[in-house]
Amino acid sequence: MANDSVEGLKLQLVYGSTKHQLNLQLPENDDVLTVARLSDAVADLTQVPRKQQKLIFKGRSLKNPDDSLTSLGLKQGSKVMLLGKKLDPDDAGDVMKMKSASQDLDKLRERLTEISTRLDGIDKGFLDEDKKESSLREISRQLSVLTESLMKQLESLDALRFDDDNKVARTRRKNLVDNIQHDVCMAVHWT
């Protein structure tokens, strides 16, 4: 370990009028806590991306990501101020497209539920035998249309691009994709 290394630091982070307790631990593969490590922890805690952060300690901006925190004078209980703006995913055009896709998915899921209910009724014998074949053909056609719509949703979500720092939007997109893939599997299974 280097002379100025510590196992961990407990810092106070001031962001606007909010004060956060920040516990930094030394990763196993590093021998010093750096500004980069602090910046990553701040991003996780506040959702302010690294690129948008300005970290200030005792009136000095912490700019060099490779600087060790102890060499800059930070110690247990030090106060660090954060200036920066969270990414507002609602302002981005791609996020608006994702919200629209989410609403469309809700409608498609309603249709999938209706089809499931109809299939369940047919399976339980609630439909006359002479109407069963035509009803199953219609359900098959509806499932094909529904599957196509779900695949188009996947394609539109795949076209959306979010900055690596925008973890909220990236997570929302992943969850939507997972849900759509599940629904596609259900629709294909019934076909």
Can you walk through the features of this model?
This protein is an alpha+beta fold and 191 residues long. It has four helices and five strands, in the order E-E-H-E-E-E-H-H-H. The protein has a five-stranded mixed sheet, with helices on one face. The chain is rod-shaped, with a radius of gyration of 26 Å. The model has no long low-confidence stretch (mean pLDDT 87).
Q: Quick recap of the structure?
A:
With 191 residues, this protein is α+β, with helices and mostly antiparallel strands.
Main sheet properties: 5 strands, mixed
Strand content: 5-15%
What is the molecular shape?
rod-shaped
Strand pairing plus helix content: what structural class?
Answer: alpha+beta
Secondary-structure element order, as H and E?
EEHEEEHHH
Q: What percent of the residues sit in helical stretches (DSSP H or I)?
A: 40-55%
Overall pLDDT score: 87
List the main descriptive attributes of the protein structure presented here.
alpha+beta, rod-shaped
Topology of this protein?
Layout: E1 8-15, E2 18-25, H1 35-46, E3 54-57, E4 60-61, E5 79-83, H2 93-123, H3 129-158, H4 167-190
Parallel strand pairs: 1-5
Antiparallel strand pairs: 1-2, 3-4, 3-5
Helix pairs in contact: 2-3, 2-4, 3-4
